[in-house]
Amino acid sequence: MRSLLALTLALPVALAACTSGDAPEAPAALPVQSSMDAGRAAPSPPDADHVEVAPHGGTVAEAGEGHLELVVDGASLLVYPLDDRAEPISADGIRDATAVLHPVDGAVQTLPLVLTGDHLQVTVPDGMTAFSADVTVPMAGETREAHFEVGLDGDFDHAH
Prior knowledge:
Blueprint: H1 2-20, E1 59-63, E2 66-73, E3 76-82, E4 98-103, E5 109-112, E6 114-116, E7 119-123, E8 131-139, E9 142-150
Antiparallel strand pairs: 1-2, 2-3, 3-7, 4-5, 4-8, 6-7, 8-9
C-alpha cells in the first residue's frame, strides 16, 4: 500500500516534468502543520511576536490557549505541551490525556497518553501505520485538543 501511495504522489511530479521538458525538481519541504489547517484560507503572514516553530522537530497544532507538538518516534507518539508562542512548557500534573487513533484500516482506539518526563507518550498498536490522531490534553483549567495525521502520505516518520 505504501508503494502505491508513493507512486500516486510521485506521478504528478513526473508528468509535469515530462510535459515541460525540464528535469523534475525535488519537492520542496512542507511547513510543519496539522490537518486542522487544511480547510482554512491561506494563513496571514506571521507577525514578529507569534512564530510557530516545532522545538522538538515534530508537528505543531494550535490547541486552546497554546499549542501541542506531536513527534513520531519509531512506534511511539510523543506529545509536548507548548505555550501560545510555541515554546515548551511543563507537563507536570497533566492527567487523563488521550489519543484517539483513527486508522485507515481497523477499529478506532482510544489510548491514554502517559506522562514521561517533559512530554506525554503512547505506543502505537502493532500494524497501525496510517491514521489520524485526535489528542486531548487537560491542563491548567482548559482542555487542549488537536488533530494530526500520521502516515497518510505513506511516510510514518512524521505527522501533519
